[in-house]
């Protein structure tokens, strides 16, 4: 007979902790974007050597968040086999689907990078819009990855928050992408090696519905941080207690 409540291990605890930290970084990056909604690429200063400290921090934190999510996700997946006899195969199945979502997200991200490079060189507005949708799809799959990893082992309140967070993220991502892609343009920049085409956003992103939608997008990972952090605390307490009992 299967137990309804999972037991916790140190491996699961580490996975939950790393995911919580990764999602916290994602939240901070999303909040930072709220304060830079109207930042445009200045084609006249692209050749300058000035370095923006915030851009450096963002470029470092984004891959760090991704790496932590991958490592944390793999730890949760590796631990899921242990729980099959306790809570059934649903958790194991969802973690496998989560890894598939991760791989698909990586594929779409690679496609976005390649297509964006082509846009810069060739100046195709339709390709720029397609690249934007590919990037949005990759982000949605990555967010679904976070949900699928722990949905089956979350308490009822956690499941409600996870689903609600995903709905908010879908609304924010799809809406902002629709708005952005409908008001994009490409600004040519003459270089010694040829002409580059720089994407420009032709509306005030700090007014109207856009900042509200962006705020919803920042709220979503914060909701996930809460679920992962609480579950990590519970998991560490349970795992530590179990280790102590074995020692005694």
Question: Any overview of this molecule?
Answer:
The structure is a single chain. The protein has 248 residues and is mainly alpha-helical. It has seven helices and two strands. It has helices spanning 10-34, 53-80, 84-87, 90-122, 125-150, 156-181, 210-247, and strands spanning 184-191, 194-201. It has a two-stranded antiparallel ribbon with strand order 1-2. β1 and β2 form a beta hairpin. α2 (53-80) runs antiparallel to α4, α2 (53-80) packs across α5 and α5 (125-150) runs antiparallel to α6. The longest helix is centred in the C-terminal third of the chain and has 38 residues, at 210-247. The chain starts with 9 loop residues before the first helix and ends with a helix. Mean pLDDT is 86; it is low at 41-47.
Give the structural class: mainly alpha
Number of strands: 2
Distance separating the two termini: 29 Å
| Broad shape | elongated
**Rounded radius of gyration (Å):** 21 Å
The helix tally amounts to: 7
β-sheet strand percentage: 5-15%
Biggest beta sheet summary: 2 strands, antiparallel
Sequence of strands across the biggest β-sheet: 1-2
Average pLDDT confidence is 86
- Tell me roughly what share of residues is in helical segments: over 70%
Give the ordered list of helices and strands. HHHHHHEEH
- Which ranges are low-confidence, i.e. pLDDT below 50, for 5 or more consecutive residues? 41-47
């Amino acid at each position: 007979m299967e137990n309804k409540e999972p037991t916790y291990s140190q491996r699961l605890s580490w996975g939950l902790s790393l995911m919580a930290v990764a999602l916290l970084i994602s939240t901070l990056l999303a909040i930072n974007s709220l304060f830079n909604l109207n930042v445009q690429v200045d084609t006249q200063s692209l050749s300058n050597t000035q370095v923006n400290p915030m851009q450096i921090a963002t470029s470092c934190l984004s891959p760090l968040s991704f790496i932590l999510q991958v490592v944390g996700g793999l730890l949760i997946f590796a631990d899921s086999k242990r729980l099959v006899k306790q809570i059934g195969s649903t958790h194991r199945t969802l973690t496998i689907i989560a890894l598939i979502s991760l791989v698909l997200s990586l594929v779409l991200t690679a496609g976005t990078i390649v297509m964006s490079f082509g846009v810069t060189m060739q100046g195709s507005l339709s390709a720029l819009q397609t690249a934007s949708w590919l990037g949005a799809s990759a982000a949605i799959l990555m967010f679904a990855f976070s949900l699928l990893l722990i949905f089956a082992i979350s308490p009822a309140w956690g499941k409600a928050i996870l689903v609600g967070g995903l709905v908010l993220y879908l609304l924010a991502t799809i809406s902002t992408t629709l708005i952005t892609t409908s008001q994009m343009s490409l600004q040519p920049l003459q270089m010694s090696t040829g002409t580059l085409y720089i994407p420009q956003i032709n509306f005030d992103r700090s007014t109207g519905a856009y900042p509200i939608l962006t705020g919803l997008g920042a709220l979503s990972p914060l909701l996930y941080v809460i679920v992962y952090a609480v579950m990590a605390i519970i998991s560490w307490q349970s795992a530590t207690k179990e280790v102590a009992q074995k020692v005694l």
